[in-house]
């Protein structure tokens, strides 16, 4: 006789929780899952945009932010300072958006468009790298906010820092 898997305990259930604005287990587990769930689609979207620009014969460098120096200060700014400050601003923005709508996925989507536009102001291509990530950060914040501000803050800031660390690591390998 074949054993049947329980229908509610699929391997992808925690991943779907992150995407749909629910908690994915404990806070550390949620942060570790939110990291690749935010990172991988963002990288895929960036790759798709770069490929599309290339197919259209458009020079993508016109849409990229200016080059900057790869220094310890820049790494600390990107991996530590930016996620801490941006998460504070994210929380304030989500608070304001929840005054306009009580639908968490709409609020998360609106927040992600705003953050994508803010990052895209430095280089249009950055919109595509940050839009999805900030959707996941927003969903994570909203999922954990009912129980704890600190938990919500960590649920958004930790994956953000891990993504920025991954990006800086990739840049370091490229240079």
Arithmetic mean pLDDT: 88
Q: What percent of the residues sit in helical stretches (DSSP H or I)?
A: over 70%
- N- to C-terminal distance: 57 Å
* Count of DSSP strands: 0
Provide the number of structural domains. Answer: 1
Basic shape: globular
Runs in which pLDDT lies below 50 for 5 or more consecutive residues are 1-7
Q: Quote the beta fraction.
A: under 5%
- Counting H and I runs of at least 4 residues, what is the number of helices? 6
Structural class of the helix and strand makeup?
mainly alpha
- Report the radius of gyration as a whole number of Å: 17 Å
Helix and strand element order: HHHHHH
Strand count, sense and barrel status of the largest sheet are: none
């Amino acid at each position: 006789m074949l054993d049947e898997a329980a229908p509610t305990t699929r391997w992808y259930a925690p991943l779907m929780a992150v995407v749909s604005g629910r908690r994915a287990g404990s806070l550390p587990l949620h942060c570790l899952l939110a990291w690749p769930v935010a990172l991988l689609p963002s990288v895929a979207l960036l790759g798709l945009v770069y490929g599309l620009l290339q197919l259209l014969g458009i020079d993508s460098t016109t849409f990229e932010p200016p080059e900057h120096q790869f220094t310890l200060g820049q790494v600390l700014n990107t991996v530590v300072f930016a996620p801490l400050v941006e998460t504070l601003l994210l929380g304030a923005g989500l608070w304001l958006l929840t005054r306009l709508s009580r639908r968490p996925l709409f609020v998360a989507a609106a927040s992600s468009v705003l953050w994508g536009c803010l990052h895209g102001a430095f280089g249009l291509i950055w919109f595509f790298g940050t839009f999805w990530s900030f959707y996941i950060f927003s969903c994570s914040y909203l999922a954990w906010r009912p129980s704890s501000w600190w938990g919500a803050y960590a649920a958004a800031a930790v994956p953000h820092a891990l993504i920025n660390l991954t990006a800086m690591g990739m840049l370091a390998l490229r240079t």
